[in-house]
What does this fold into?
Amino acid sequence: MEYFLQQGLNALALGGTYALLGLGLAVVFSVLGLINFAHGELMTLTGYGIFYTLLMGVPYPLALLAGVLIAALAAVLMERIAFRPVRNASPTTMLLTSFAVSTILHILFQNLISARPKAIPVPDAIIGAVSVGSMQIGIIQLLSIAITAVSLLGLTLFLKKSLLGIAMRAAAEDFNVARLMGVNANMVISTAFAISGILAGIAGVLWLFQRGSVDPMMGFLPVLKAFIAVVLGGLGSLTGAVIGGFILGIIEVSLRAYLPDGMLAYRDAISLTLVILVLFFLPQGIVPRRESVR
Amino acid sequence: MAISAYIVPQATRSAIVMALALAVPCALIGLFGSNPMITTVTNFLIMLIAVSALGLFSGNSGILSFGHCAFMALGAQISATLTIPPALKKTAFPLLADPILQSQFGLVMALLASVLIVGLIAYLIGLAICRLNGSSATIATLGLLIIVESLIVAAQGFTRGNQAVYGIPKLATWPVALAFAIGTIVIARLYRDSRVGLLLRAARENHAAAQSIGIDIPAQRQVAWVASAMLSALAGALLAHFLTVFSAKQFYFDLAFAIIVMQVVGGLSSVAGSVAGAVLVTAAIEMLRRLENGIDFGLFQVPQIFGLTQIGLCLIVLAILYTRREGLMGFAEIDRFLPFLRKREELATEAAAPTQARPTGTLTLEKVSKAYGGLLAVAEVDLELRVGEVLGLIGPNGSGKTTLLGCIAGTHAPSGGRVRIDDIDITGHPAHEVARQGIGRTFQNIRLFAHMTAAENVMAALTQRWPQLGHAELVRRSRHLLDELKIADLAEREAGTLAYGQQRRLEIARALALEPRFLLLDEPAAGMNESETADLLGILGWLVKDRGLGLLVVDHDMQLIMRLCDRIAVLNKGQLIALGSAAEVQASRAVREAYLGRRHAEVIT
It folds into this structure.
């Protein structure tokens, strides 16, 4: 039971990270129809941002904040420079553009910074564990869950209450109609990228807490998995992205916890196969997007 | 099924010309070139197989795939395992079963085995992936690539895991690569114009329209998916026999991306484009590789740049995407530039129009409802439409007309009630099955297969109604239908380039190719001027009187509705509030209230 609870918390922590990444992808996709491959590089940029600000002697919490802001800024710039020329192109064109941007950034990181990991110290205060009853719960896990919860709540409030948030939801439903209603397209798109950058940054911080180092490929694999989580949840749906993220987290943690040792190497293959199997039964994902045929 | 529906003369000529254009220079280099040149050409030919294979699926379906690289990896793995000498095998793959360890196959058997095994695997995966649309499908192929790579790495003992597979016999010489490359482009070119290729391209151009003419989209994708996976496996296996040493990570994102870049640079949907893309990108990669180790310009030196090739590919693809999105060839084949390939097929002597029995039957709606969450968009509507009758469906905006149409056509699943044709229940059947039951439709926003010719638009529908017809007969019948709608002279024009009224006619011709009993028309007169509307009235009248179809017409043009329709049904807020002749409906108080509001309706009465 205890083991189960502990694994449950692990699943929440990991799923939360995927949910944040997936949400960032979904915010952009719902507005633009763009699958942003370079989302992972935003995570990596957060890592390097923290690494260099720490090197400059900036206090730890401020360095984290700087890292997240760098990701947000980079996301907005990315849209301005690379994605605007293909804004109304086919999904394939946009996807390839973002893949190219992602690859270019990898290689720049490798050449300009280093192909090797750069260590980012994790403060002692969050390394330990607290005991609840007879359970040992990692502080990092708790922190991850708390940060995920706060981020999701913050984003929900923004989307429900603020004018810009409402405009974004309208744009996600039907961008053309939203524009006819006077919603400023550039504003909405920039905001979407800024939000996705912030979410990638937060996810990056959580990822760094677990790994303690940043390298050029840091964001690549988690974001690939987040893609899959987004498709599982239903491409285009924000709620779906969060649900998909948590489900993928649960699948991965359960496999890690219960798979026999000899099979552990297969866990990515198994979890992704499970997801594709779900898609066989729910091709539109868990929260399908409604499209009218006229 | 007639083989001639699969092998189209024009495509055959086009394929032969491409094959010659490829074979002559490659053979010359192979016979007289230096060793490095031969190596480059062999490598190019293998990549060409990979690109054409990808193009066969992605180009015709419009779904970008990273997964074909996974099939290459599997092909390489299987073929290598079968051909490595037994002595070497025991140390490399200790966990393999004895019969495999002790045997060694030749190239042909090994290729055959890789292609067949991968085909089977692709079939199973395709059952899931081919049901996904657009970006979802692409991401699933990405998942496939990760799955296969991680399986190969994890299964160390059966594979070499992370380490290099070595000792593979060098069997992929230039003549072998050339022969397979020619075979692949011929297959890809013939597929494109064949019946199955036509249907898949239609699905790529417009999903809903393809379903409306009866195309089972996942099934069509599956054909291309399996065929292209098998060709990818062939490319992978040949690459293994060309390199003689490879590791799993060589068949990962870098290779997948390089192949995609070749396809995108060459042209989104073109076999000739695949060839052009493979030539250009291979050349670029060769040059960049030489620069990668640093360049000495004498005065200054460019240091070694890690990943220069990748950056180069990225910049090439960005340049293409920013300036010429459809790639060099776009949707065109060499036929467009070489008129002699295009000579008109000898049409069978003008036979009489296919005799056609007047349709019979009644389309019945019983208490059909559609709810979205708490909102009832259509509420328990009862309607009947007989052949030879025109039923108008009108109502204020948002009254549920298009939704009701969708419930009949199968694009929406009704949440309650029944839809029948005579005694056949079609409630909630997918759109393509409804179409095959004899219900054609047109769309409010015209939906044609824009990058296909007018004739191809009609032919795609014809193949669904008459699967056994050969190509020549399809051409002949499509001409006949286009002629009936007075657009025969536009047969070879791309549908997307036609004028509005012509597009509307083409859409009707395409629907008629199904020989439907009933035709659903969603706002056919929207956006038309008076003379175009008069024109349309003529066509619709002809459909009913001469063809005997039953029409369900949704429109806001009251003149058209009143003049055309035998009976008129009025929807308001999802409910049927009136049904009867034009005069009866005009007299109905409920209808006035719905259109004008209660107060104004009273004033008029």
